[in-house]
Specification:
Elements (H helix, E strand, L loop, with lengths): L13 E9 L5 E4 L4 E7 L2 E6 L5 E9 L4 E10 L2 E11 L8 E9 L6
Antiparallel strand pairs: 1-2, 1-8, 3-4, 4-7, 5-8, 6-7
Length: 114
């Protein structure tokens, strides 16, 4: 059973973690801050770190909530588990840019094998 209304992940070892943050001005989490911390690495470059042991991050999807850019997700490995997701944001012209971002991280808990 999911901790988030309207989100059903039927396998008990899977968890879908929604998140949202604004990268414009002072970067800040706007949703999901009880599960994730945000680090601003520079223009258009952010790291989301899971506050609880992840096991294995299976998937991440993020979208820019702006006409200004595209968003790419990159998983950060720390050995056999993944505890962070790097979000890179670019304008259509390919320039790093700060935007508002929403997305989901799918985590398999209790395992270090994908």
């Amino acid at each position: 059973m999911s901790r988030y209304p309207g989100i059903d992940v039927s396998q008990p070892d899977l968890e879908l973690i929604p998140f949202a943050f604004t990268g414009t001005g002072t970067a800040a989490m706007t949703f999901g801050s009880s599960d994730i911390t945000l680090t601003d690495n520079g223009t258009g470059d952010y790291t989301l770190t899971l506050l609880r042991s992840a096991g294995v991050v299976l998937w991440c999807s993020a979208i820019a909530r702006s006409d200004a850019g595209k968003v790419f997700c990159v998983l950060h490995d720390t050995g056999s588990t993944v505890s962070a997701v790097r979000i890179l944001c670019y304008s259509d012209a390919g320039t790093a840019t700060d935007v508002k971002v929403s997305g989901f991280i799918l985590v398999k808990r209790g395992s270090t094998e994908s």
